Amino acid sequence: MKLITFAVPCYNSQDYMRRCIDTLLTGGEKVEIIIVNDGSKDRTGEIADEYAAKYPTIVKAVHQENQGHGQGVNVGLTHATGEFYKVVDSDDWLDTEALKKVLECMEKWRINQTPVDMLVCNYIYDHLYEGRQQQIHYRNVFESSSLCNWHEIGRFLPTQYLIMHALIFKTEVLRKSGVQLPKHTFYVDNIFAYQPLPFVENIFYLDVDLYHYFIGREDQSVNEKMLMKRIDQQILVTKLVSACTDLHQVREKKLATYMTRNISVMMAISSIHLLLIGDADAMEKRRELWEYMRQMDKGLYKTLRYKRLSGLTYLPGKLGDFATLTGYRLARKLVKFQ
Predict the structure, then answer these.
(1) Considering only CA atoms, which of 146, 293, 277, 269 is closest in space to residue 206?
(2) Residue 338: per-residue pLDDT
(3) I need a labelling partner for 180 at 20 to 30 A (CA). Which of 86, 187, 192, 290 fits?
């Protein structure tokens, strides 16, 4: 069995997918790479087949009609044979020295039968064209190179949370969680990084900068203009995340707190961007989103509305809207989101 399966969903990725795949190939026969060509209209499928022919024991090429990034993740998980599973977007890449250390750890776990459900590594926001980087680490949350559970973790910083780029799940854990991402939808990585967490018992943090998250394309989904353009999909994913787990059933208090905060962040993002759009339709969607939350779970609604950051993005009246937008713009200047 391979140590890890890398799924690489690709759509019109001919210009940058080689950079991604070549870094994964440094893992050699210890890794499995599943390239999912999502109905691309350029040479993506041809390049995928080229890699599969050249590295038949490592690379698989899967071709499907265009169904979106989420279905690429689903298909990769269906075909995965590795003990662990990680999604690597086709415009991103891994640090090869960090990958070597990850694989060394996985080999030791296999030999010693160490039960690791989730590996957490650092990731880098890589503004490649500008020549600058921003590291995101978790030293304040987890002890490095040590196994722990949710009860033993430290406190997350206000701007710090677990995203797909930081996580490597045990394949069995993902399948047990039943995570399935919706088709033709952006922002589904939020579901992938959230729904399996209650099925994770043992966590290992390796303090290496593994994942390089490329920042720079104008059409990236994290771009503010794109967030506003695709706000309906952001709202949908926010609802799906909030509904996929009954937080009252999550036994570990620290995990429940973290997951609640995660929903709060998503509610804040949706609320703020609807406010930035600012027309009557957007304001109605904002009201409806909060009403949905109230109807779904009144206790969670009260927490989000009155005890978390999200509540500050849904203040009453015009003055409240002004305060929300002023705070958001100040935060952008201070934090310089990515």
Answers:
(1) 146
(2) 45
(3) 290
